[in-house]
Amino acid sequence: MVGPASVADLADRLSNAVVNISTSQKVEGTEPSPGPAVPKLEAPDGSPLQDFFNDLLQGNGDDDAQRVQSLGSGFVIDPSGIVVTNNHVIQDADEITVNFADGTKLDAKIVGIDPKTDLAVLKVEPKAPLAAVAFGDSDKVRIGDWVMAIGNPFGLGGTVTVGIVSARGRNINAGPYDNFIQTDAAINRGNSGGPLFDMYGDVVGINTAIISPTGGSIGIGFSIPALLAQNVVSQLREFGEMRRGWLGLRLQAVTDDIAEGLGLPNVRGALVAGIVPRGPADNGQIKVGDVVTRFDGRDVATSRDLPRIVAETPVGKAVDIAVLRKTAVDRPVETVNVQVTLGRLEDGEKEVASAEQPPKDTATVDPAPLPDAATLGMRFSDMTPELKSRYELADELSGVVVTDVAPQSAAADKGIEAGTVVKEIAQEAVTTADDARTKLAKLRTDGRRNALMLMADKAGDLRFVVVPID
């Protein structure tokens, strides 16, 4: 593979806008704090570099309190002194210092942080306009494109590395809006918060995480896409906080089994498994079992994509939503268009948290086996006050109660437990144990391989489960 002839001119043009960020935090205690995790560094006897290595590896402090220091990277996006970095670089810091390539050091104040995307915006007060860089269009970045990272790995500021985009849309379970660009450009500890440039000098990503068994680069690094970062940075600068759109849906992934059970044309979209009471979508237009395929003119490929798209949409906007819905059991799914006015996610999270009720203080007793024969490894019972008490079910819950699950059965393999409530089978409501057994028997008679079941836990949260019939 032949790379670019040289990135020297590009690095020279951009390096002054990339900064090192040092933070300190006072930590009470008598135990010495470990230094940064770095490889063993040695220099010849008498070398002036030895003092640098010693300072890097050894902590300083008194017996009563230690000042823990950390290093990271960032970049200037506005000549007036706006700096972008990762939230984890400056989290819990008492002091934040931005170090520039010319040796200038400026104290920084936090403009705003967003833990959900691990981004932070800082402000410094320069005496003259600063060199700055601009965000690019990360959606145009292709797998195989050359990219360049500049940062502060292991405290060695101004380090330039080059690689390619290895993958897009990576989910590493770092947050609710994971959509990382993966690169093999060397990224190490201290690169966090630094920019990932395309070959035009635009910031297409913000380096934030690596996968490594050693702490050093093995060629798997992750960057926050610029388009996601731009929206966050813009809101933090304007409001000092995030104001994300909120739909008020509980979502579930569309699997092959669920797509077959719902009669979907393909395995795409976000399955609605629940609607938050009094949330924006609680207006009767969206129903449990709908599959969201388009939102505000944008395609929804998976259940992971929809929350991010909604969050990027302005609060209070009335958006058009396309859903796939089975309007009748004997009819194929149809596309239905609805409209919902978005709320604010941060307000919704507070409301949901305040509405959560503590578990009831009731004793749990082992359920006695019921006389009916097990179906798919489950025994069913009509809902009764005694069962609600036994399994601590929410008062408003209705449906059929699973009272026993056979070990190593199809139901057990799907994580179904005693106390689960069956709401629907094959998208038809069930209200009695006889209903459940009859519908499952019919599915078997009809030659169906799987049973699509809508189930609720004791708090009433819903999920779709596909249980093999044979």
TrEMBL record:
Q: Spell out the SMART domains in the cross-references.
A: PDZ
EC number(s) per entry: 3.4.21.107
Q: Which reaction does it catalyse?
A: Acts on substrates that are at least partially unfolded. The cleavage site P1 residue is normally between a pair of hydrophobic residues, such as Val-|-Val
- Keyword Protease appears in the UniProt entry: yes
For this protein, the record's Pfam families field holds:
PDZ_2, Trypsin_2
* Keywords, comma-separated and alphabetical: Hydrolase, Periplasm, Protease, Repeat, Serine protease, Signal, Stress response
Subcellular compartments: Periplasm
Q: Name one GO molecular function term.
A: serine-type endopeptidase activity
Q: What is the top EC class of this enzyme, as a single word? A: hydrolase
The active site is formed by: H88 (charge relay system), D118 (charge relay system), S192 (charge relay system)
- Binding positions for substrate per the UniProt entry: H88, D118, G190, N191, S192
Residues covered by the PDZ domain:
236-300
- Region entry Disordered: which residue ranges? 24-45, 347-368
- Source taxon at top rank: Bacteria
- Which InterPro entries has this protein been placed in? PDZ (IPR001478), PDZ_sf (IPR036034), Pept_S1C_Do (IPR011782), Peptidase_S1_PA (IPR009003), Peptidase_S1C (IPR001940)
Q: Name one GO biological process term.
A: proteolysis
What GO cellular component entries does it have?
A: periplasmic space
Q: Which family does it belong to?
A: Belongs to the peptidase S1C family.
Q: What name does UniProt use for this protein? A: Probable periplasmic serine endoprotease DegP-like
List the source organism.
Answer: Aureimonas jatrophae
